[in-house]
Specification:
By secondary structure, this protein is of the alpha/beta class. It is built from 18 helices and 13 strands.
Amino acid sequence: MKNVFDTLKERGLLAQVTHEEEVRTLLGNEKVTFYIGFDPTADSLHVGHFLQMVVMRHMQLAGHRPIALVGGGTGMVGDPSGRTDMRKMMTVETIQHNCECFKKQLSSVIDFQEGKAIMVNNADWLMDLNYISFLREIGSCFSVNKMLTAECFKSRLEKGLSFIEFNYMLMQSYDFLQLYRNYGCKLEMGGDDQWSNILGGIELLRRKENAQGYGMTFTLLTNSEGKKMGKTASGALWLDPAKVSPYDFFQYWRNVDDADACRFMKLITFMPMEEIAEYEKLEGQALNEAKTRLAYEVTKLVHGEEEAKKAKEAAKAVFAGGGVSANMPTAAITAADLEEGLLALLVKVGFIPSKSEGRRLVQQGGLTVNGEKATLDTSISEADFGTDGMIVKRGKKAVLKIELK
């Protein structure tokens, strides 16, 4: 059986590894318990988390045991990594709600049955810590001078780093120590922005338990130009279907740059490398086939096969056939809403972010209503809705059916 380390490397998922040969040997010879942390900063995971879920699944399929650590405790502080400002403080109730939402989404990719994976919340050991005891046991193991050289802190020093955030590295390192003690966890994994925090945990294991821990980080999800992926016109690309519909999720991946399609197949699907190699041979218009397959595979993993099929069929009906599909994104309005005008209506249903953005789209010829280019004078009435509703399109990528109730 292929070593999962080689699988992750071949698919371009690995960024940095401590003790590379030791980790490869360990993963080839033992069933390793490893963990990845997810701080509950929102009530849904997003596509950046999804890449980490895919890595966990690769590891699980190879016989290793994942621990999904939900940061009910660290979420009270906020990770400064990759931030230029301090995170918004959340209430205990909000954090707990977000943790519950994560459980359901993680279960769509990770198998938690019969102890094959574990989900724990670091609130269980962080929330009731005695501060003096923690400083004596854990704080004494960290050099402030060394901490200040970490990337997660360096970028914040110019604008000001709060003391509460400075504690984050100690808390994440303490997580690794607790998971080692309670579950025999030897390996911490995370996004490449977590490298400094992971090194802190490995050092703490060495000092407190005389044990060797290991760390591995993954590639951040970026496009061919190096820009971070996962942002849509309305915000993050959430995994929650109530925030981003399966159709819009499908369309996001269907519309990636040609140069990114096959690389994303390697990173966030489980398609065999031999099959991806065949798609890599395609050029020009034929690459649309690769992007459709990418969109289908990712949507199937996140939302299930049925929703992926619906999204694919809807996209085909709307964009290839120019028709209307029962599965396309739909919004409902009342007759009273018509009085506000087209742009106000589109803002209300969330199709455009603002009326000024709508005017810009119209002036560039990028907005159509029932197949006709909209103008600043376009008015709408009940007659525009017919039996199938009114179809509005924004550019070539976004479409919405608006029904009159």
